[in-house]
Write a structure and sequence with these properties.
heterodimer; A: alpha+beta; Alpha-Beta Plaits; four-stranded mixed sheet; two-stranded antiparallel sheet; 7 helices; B: two-stranded antiparallel sheet; 6% helix; 5% strand; extended
Chain lengths: 290, 227
Amino acid sequence: MSGHSGEAPGFGVQREPEVCKLIDTTICMGCKACEVACVEWNDMPFGPTTFDNTYQTMPETRWNFWNLIKFNEHQREDGTVQWLMRKDQCMHCADPGCLRACPADGAIVQYVNGIVDFQQENCIGCEFCVSGCPYDIPKFNPATKKVYKCTLCSDRVGQGLEPACIKACPTGCLKFGTKEDMKYIAEERAKQLRENFGFAQAGVYDPQSIGGTHVVYVLHDASDPERYGGLPKDPVIPWSYTVWKWLAKPVLGTLSLMGLVGVLMHYVSVGPRRPQPEPPLKEGTDVHRG
Amino acid sequence: MWLKDDGTTLSGNWLYCGSWTEAGALTQRRGTEDPSELGIYPNWAWSWPANRRVLYNRASCDGNGKPWDPSRRQVWWDEAKQSWIGNDVPDFKADSTPKDHMGPFIMNPEGVGRLFVPLGAMADGPFSEFYEPIESPIANPLHPNQSSNPVVKKYKTDLDKYGTVDQGFNVICTTYRLTEHYHYWTKNNPMNVQLVPEPFVEVPAELADRMGIRGGENVRVTSARSQ
């Protein structure tokens, strides 16, 4: 029992943790189990691929292939080669460029848990999100005229399950949990790589230029993420979309609202439109009645 | 540490007994201390069986249980304790005194190591030996006059032809598997085919330069038997 007259303090307060996917590139072995799991869970139609002189399934993600391991060969200064594998998919940015760019209400949504999801029924197919994304993730399907990308398995996460790719990973390279927990594990792993395994530059990729991401990487060398298949060091959303979302859209919205307000004020001050008096007949016009 | 028949221990495979104790998963330990300075690292992860780092380590001691090399003492017989002790976990019956003359290779009935395959199990003799494959383009560096195995069974049908360097078969080729396919069985599964759509050969860059082929080009792979 509590002496507090109302509900106990904190009653009804629920944690709304932000979710996060952790990808430890140092223990990815490139088996592509996550690619298959993604295609299977999301019931994607298959598309043809061609062998292009690499183990990589295809050059980049497709509208029906959201999860792609990028295989990169990096030559160190001493001539030895490092084979770097990075799982490429939507990063679920805290400040999503796609969402900024999207003009259609409800086509792109960001949930409280951080997942950025596309609602195809509201998509108008303008493809602004494609150019707004710093990671080149949203992909247009010309057949349906809609844009698609990784949902971080929001349908699974909503039921308390981990995303399909995490479930399939055999090495423990992929982990899923709260952003706080994943950041802690990632930093501990990076520390271990620096102190015990000789990767002096090991670190965590969680770019603050877009407010962090809900997919974080552990990299052998965080000083040069570009070598992992073009992972931008400081990703930026094109300024035009910042202008669109934070300047043009509010300003234009305000202007149109002011137009409405003006109409209302006119109604209040002048009153409704009244029947206009008939124009006076021209003098000298002969009118015959009856 | 040892499997018991009273239900207090559980082990899928006896080798892993003791890897998970009241202290948790010993396989996840990351202790970097190495008191003996022999590279044993007893608190780093866990090795089967019984966290033992060197199998048959009794063989590092002479008949009296004294290390052959006093500067690298793995295990030894402690007369006072009447027990085998050491920097590593002794791979031996702990209370078997050297006077019992029990051999260090405890998995063989004779208690000693085997350099040969007994009981005539191998047609080419009791001792292990290296032979080049029949079609190898080089002579066996160990004994060039007998390059390949003299007792290997050669089939003699019309299809069983063997190529030589003179005929142009001068490149060594080997096959391997992919994680994306199970042999060729999965070649009609669209999901696997999407990942690796066609067979390919990997050629070292230097050899490819010499043969004038570039990545992504089609090549024809031939042997004396087929192509």
